[in-house]
Predict the structure.
Amino acid sequence: MNNQNTNQQTADQVQTYFHKEAGDFDSIYSGKTSPLMRLLNRWLRHDIYLRYEMTIAECANDKGKRILDIGCGSGRYCHELAARGAGKCIGIDFAQNMLDLANDFAKRRGVSDRCEFLLGQYLDVKLDQPCDVAVAMGYFDYIPNCVDHLKKMRADAREKLITIFPVAGTFRAFVRKIRLGARGCPVFFFTPEQIDDLLKQSGWRKTRIERVGQLWFVVAVPA
């Protein structure tokens, strides 16, 4: 099987997984789950909450700008950034159930006029104009060939990329690979050296990398 077919098979598997898991995944942010699951989420997924807070803080000076959220899921980053003054937030995801939630929550928060959600695989989506900042949270976890995606992000974002990569070589990485693999969802992990090389190949220059639990929080600018 060639690389193109392998990449498409991986994308299809991830799409199916997140379409099915949309409601459960969003409950990490909404808290609409059992008290036990809320406690477990805060314990086992604390880095997800931290990456959210760090991303919002990193965008504090980006009021009035166009923000691109790649793999936006239920749109939680778009909603918050729009509420804090972003000029336009564009979210892209290939799971329709996720975008249904994103549009519904945007209406509830009163930010529909500044949020637009597009259905499709990111490499196939063409924007009408570049954005200022690209955000990709929980995205490279599921991408077998990151360079193509990072190059497109470089073309789509004029000023900055904010993203995360899962940490390689941990016990949690092993458990996660087994757990998601059993559900038909591939997942990938990275070292700092791999991340640096991927960014350089794609026209980005790393300005910040920080370990947050099981994640590498990365900020990069055009090289």
Remarks:
- The CA atoms of residues 45 and 53 lie 13 Å apart.
